[in-house]
Amino acid sequence: MNETIKAHLYVLLATILIASSFLVSGKLSGIIDPISITMYRFVLATLVLSPIFIKKEYREKFKSTFKRGLIISFFYSIYFIGMFKALETTTVLNTSTLYTLVPLMTAILCIFFFKDKISFKQLIIYLIAMIGTLIVVFKSNLSLFLHFSLNYGDIIFLIACVSMAFYSIFLKLLHKDGDILLVLVFSTLLGGIIWMFLSMQVLDIALQWDKIEGNLLYLMLYLSIVTTVITLFLYQKASIVLGSKKLMAYTYLSPAMVAVLVYIFDKQTISFGIFIGILISAVATVVILRQK
Questions:
Q1: Mutual angle of helices 272-290 and 254-266, in 10-degree steps
Q2: pLDDT tens figures, 167-198
Q3: Is 97 within 8 Å of 246 (Cβ atoms)?
Q4: Neighbouring residues of 70: CB distance < 8 A, sequence distance ≥ 6
C-alpha cells in the first residue's frame, strides 16, 4: 500500500473518530464550561503521551518541536474557543452551516502559502460539496435553510473557521524532515493547554473538573485518547502527504458521518433527502481528492 492511500485512510479514520466525538460531547455538555472541558481533554491527552519521553531521542527533539507545536496549537485552540463563545449567541445549526466554508477557505489560503491554483471547475466542485453537506445539516428541510440568518455569534465562528483553515496550513508549513510526529502531537497538546489556560484566565472560567466523575470520566478518556491524541496524530501524518486542501476536503463528510453513527448507535432513521445529501457530498469530496 503506497503512502498516498495510507494518508487517505488516516484522514478517513480521523473523520469517523471526530464524528463520534459529537455524540460523546453531547453527553458531557452542560456539566462544566466547554473551554474547561477542552483544557481537561488536552491535559489528559498530554499525560497519556508523556511516557514517550523515556526515549532520549524524543527528549532531544522536544525543544525544537515545541516552538512549532505552540504555533499550530494557537490556531487549533482559537477554533475551539471561538466555537464555544459563538454558541453562546448562535445555534449548532448555524455553526455547522458555516463550517462547510472551511475547505474553500483552506483552498484560498493555499494560493498564498503554497502557490496553488483554483480552477473554475474546482470551485464548482467545492460548491456542490457544500450543497450536499448543507442538505445533511438542514435535514433536507428547505424551510430551515430559508430561515438561516447571521448574527454576532456567527461572526465569531467565521473567525474560528478561518483559524481552523490556518491550522491545516501550518500543519503542512511547519513540518520538517526528521520530525517525530508523537513529539509534535505532544507539543501541540501542551501548547493547547497553555492557550486554553490563558483564555480561561481572561474569561474568568473556573475548572470544576471534580464534576467529571463516574461514567463521565470514561467519556473524557475517550475524547482525550481516541478523538484527540489519535486524530491529531492521523491528521499530522496525513497532512505531510496530502497537503492542506485535501486534508480539509474531508470536512464535507463530517455531517454525513455523524448521521450514519447516530443511525447505528441511536437508531435514528436517515431520510431519503439526507441520503441524497450524503451521496452528493461524498461524490464531490472524492472528485476534490482526485484533483492534482
A1: 140
A2: 999 999 998 888 999 999 999 999 999 999 99
A3: no
A4: 187, 191, 194
Q: Give 55's DSSP letter.
A: S
- Please state the pTM of the whole predicted model: 0.87
- Helix 254-266 to helix 120-137 angle (10° resolution) is 30
φ, ψ of residue 175 in degrees (nearest 5)? -70, 140
Give exposure, 128-155, as e/b (b: 16+ Cβ within 10 Å): bbbebbbbbbbbbeeeeeeeeeeeebbe
Coil, strand, or helix at residue 28?
A: helix
For 41-71, write each residue's pLDDT tens digit. 999 999 999 999 999 999 999 998 999 999 9
Domain segments of the chain as ranges = 3-290
Calpha distance 129→164 (Å, rounded): 18
Residue whose grid cell is 433536507: 140
